[in-house]
């Protein structure tokens, strides 16, 4: 099995500890499971709770975090200029329009893939640790170099998984790689894009199934929500709370759990609609 | 358990798509995690049986070697039905 290179420098861990900063990488292995959306929303939600938060776009090949946050037109400098020393850290950070506690560290151009390495990421995190309570790193899909760079800067991980066979398999692989690295204080799971009605009909893996298979502690559950697409069209993450949406509430709850609050994870139930749905609900009534 | 699950169980219908996803995942993850191919597993099975056969007479058709996973750890589980114990000189 491929091993991640062991962390040869721990200066960033010392910096994180001494500034009481938590650096969390969001990864999934598989693409399209909602990593970037979750990063944007948790960034907003943690900022709303009063934490100085920096979201780092570590997906240098296919960057999108700026778009989801509605900040694409405000980027002047990027991580590329910070690392090469041609601008100061503060010049590259983009402040969010509504949440003053949230900053984005934008990804540079895709040529960064050629030279960026884990040491660069650790340096970036060391710099950020001084000014932030939380650093959220949006990892690219895959388990290759881009992923290794992203995880190098973190001491915690959130594994994002869909209740779907290929996503669970890839998440298992990522969980194995993360724990073999041995530098993570905490690895937690977010089950994303759950469709309650399909779970009730036993046509989708349930949360229990996923937990049973992956054996990673559960941080939160987010159900499939059309509002997510609408909010990304607008560049206004649901966690801002402008719309009342199930996913928006779930993101807020996850952020509160991250800061250590004991927020119970509710059972996901579908909203009843027509007669067949109500019959389905009756059949899904828990009896044992 | 829901009423739907109970009905499916009572009618003997356990092959929902979620169930088959679960069992397929368990199988494939056991191999992913150990990085062992079915060919190597079979080779191991034959060699283990060779050793055990010195002491016990085994039922070759019923023997099975499989990988099982629980809580992120994987175990190699051998099931070797015994026909009878051989008398071996110690």
TrEMBL record, chain A:
It comes from the Bacteria. InterPro entries: CobQ/CobB/MinD/ParA_Nub-bd_dom (IPR002586), MinD (IPR010223), MinD_FleN (IPR025501), P-loop_NTPase (IPR027417), ParA/MinD_ATPase (IPR050625). GO terms for biological process: division septum assembly; negative regulation of cell division. One of its GO terms (molecular function) is ATP binding. CDD domains: MinD (cd02036). One of its GO terms (cellular component) is cytosol. Gene3D superfamilies: P-loop containing nucleotide triphosphate hydrolases. The keyword Transmembrane helix does not apply. Residues 24-237 form the CobQ/CobB/MinD/ParA nucleotide binding domain. Coiled coil: none annotated. Keywords: ATP-binding, Cell cycle, Cell division, Nucleotide-binding, Septation. ATP binds at residues 30-37. NCBIfam families: minD_bact. ATPase required for the correct placement of the division site. Cell division inhibitors MinC and MinD act in concert to form an inhibitor capable of blocking formation of the polar Z ring septums. Rapidly oscillates between the poles of the cell to destabilize FtsZ filaments that have formed before they mature into polar Z rings. PANTHER family: SEPTUM SITE-DETERMINING PROTEIN MIND HOMOLOG, CHLOROPLASTIC, SEPTUM SITE-DETERMINING PROTEIN MIND HOMOLOG, CHLOROPLASTIC-RELATED. Belongs to the ParA family. MinD subfamily. This is Septum site-determining protein MinD. It comes from Synechococcus sp. SB0676_bin_10.
UniProtKB/TrEMBL annotation, chain B:
It holds the Pfam family MinE. GO terms for biological process: cell division; regulation of division septum assembly. Keywords: Cell cycle, Cell division. Gene3D superfamilies: Cell division topological specificity factor MinE. It comes from the Bacteria. Prevents the cell division inhibition by proteins MinC and MinD at internal division sites while permitting inhibition at polar sites. This ensures cell division at the proper site by restricting the formation of a division septum at the midpoint of the long axis of the cell. This is Cell division topological specificity factor.
